[in-house]
Amino acid sequence: MKAVGVIVEYNPFHNGHFYHIKESKKETEADITIAVMSGQFLQRGEPALVDKWHRTKMALLSGIDIVIELPYVFSTGHATHFAEGATQLLDAIQCDSFAFGSEQGTIQPFLNTYSLLKKYDDDYNALIKQFVSTGLSYPQSLYMAYEKLKKLEEKDYIDLSQPNNILGYHYVEAASRLNLSIKPVTIQRIKAGYHDSIFKDSSIASATGIRKSLFESLSLDEIKNYVPTTTFTQLQEWKDKHTQFVNWDTFWPLLRYAIIRNTPEQLTQFADVSEGIEHALMKAARKSHSFSQFMTTLKSKRYTWTRLQRMITHIYTGITKDALQQFSKPTYIRLLGMTSDGQKYLSENKKDFKLPLISRVASTKDAMLQLDLRATEMYGQGLNLVSKDAPAADYQTPPIRL
Question: What is its main location (predicted)?
Fold first, then answer.
């Protein structure tokens, strides 16, 4: 059986994702689709809207055949690390190709961009330092350096101001640099941009727009036209059980406590917390009555919203620099769910997987997996602030079978 992989968060699964799965299978002539999906905490440093089990069900009910978890080590990392973990896992589970959505829509410009930046690596790094020294943020400096390099050779390159192009480039770069056998494919992103709000005359909306609508209106009816019926059902089930969807506001009392209970020196031990901000974190936590007030106080040119959120994710979960730095690549394939076709694929190909397949966590002492279990525990602790129903722990939840 031929498999195409997709790298996802499904926060939540929407009609654009459904289109992406359909087109990915068509483009690659694959028999099944395998999703490597972030767990309880996501790449932009935030808790998932609903837990990984509900998002797994959304995926399996809408065209995905196997869902595996992207470990916390990678799911909360910067784009390069996120891409390295995801592509290696899809390669390890023997996907022939991986498909990602992009504003570009064709793969050759991605390959051209990778070749350009590899060829002029020293010049690129020198330009980045030059732009950073002028006061630009690191992401802005990357973009400016790239725009300058593009003028050296006349080829078709991607627009690195577009968010999905940026992430797609990191996937292509990771697969190429790590010499993986998996082949990259890109699907044109349609209608809704990454950060767009909901448009009433469309059936496609971004996950960002859907989340914004859910938190502003508190009504599922507002997003009904933009998600498959199966997603709507899972979201309704979650709301009925837990009363609300999850964001940092949900966890704010515990997050505030996690910051204040440490000394400034202890805060610097947590992953992604750079020296110099520890006093500002402490001061803002003591003064702020909400998460949004806390973040508004801290955000600056140097510290972007995403960078700050990654810091506080690690403070909240208790993950230190030392804990994360011991891992450079995935050590297992964690199965979250499968369809009957997915189960058949696993039975036929398991012996060829490059990493051990884990379906039950109780018998596994893998150190990387322990961080995933801690993340799930802390997600549950936060959810308990607003919900009477305790969320399912990893030890209690077997892979979902549909």
Answer: cytoplasm
pTM of the model as a whole: 0.93
Distance CA(336)–CA(320), nearest Å, equals 26
Q: Does 11 show up as a binding residue in the annotation?
A: yes
Q: Is 222 annotated as a binding residue?
A: no
User: For the chain, which residues make up each domain, given as ranges?
Assistant: 3-103+188-243+330-401, 120-161, 248-325
Tell me: is residue 55 an annotated ligand-binding position. no
17 appears as a binding residue in the annotation: yes
Whether 164 and 8 have beta carbons less than 8 Å apart is answered as no
Known binding residue 54? Answer is no
**Cis peptide leading into 12, omega within 30 of 0?**
yes
Residue 152: exposure state from Cβ atoms within 10 A (0-12, 13-18, ≥19):
exposed
Query: Residues 80-138: pLDDT tens digits?
Result: 999 999 999 999 999 999 999 999 999 999 999 999 999 999 999 999 999 999 988 88
Distance of CA 113 to the CA centre of its chain: 23
Residue 105 known to bind ligand: no
Per-residue model confidence as pLDDT tens digits over 42-63: 999 999 999 999 999 999 999 9
The CATH-assigned architecture of domain 3-103+188-243+330-401 is 3-Layer(aba) Sandwich (3.40)
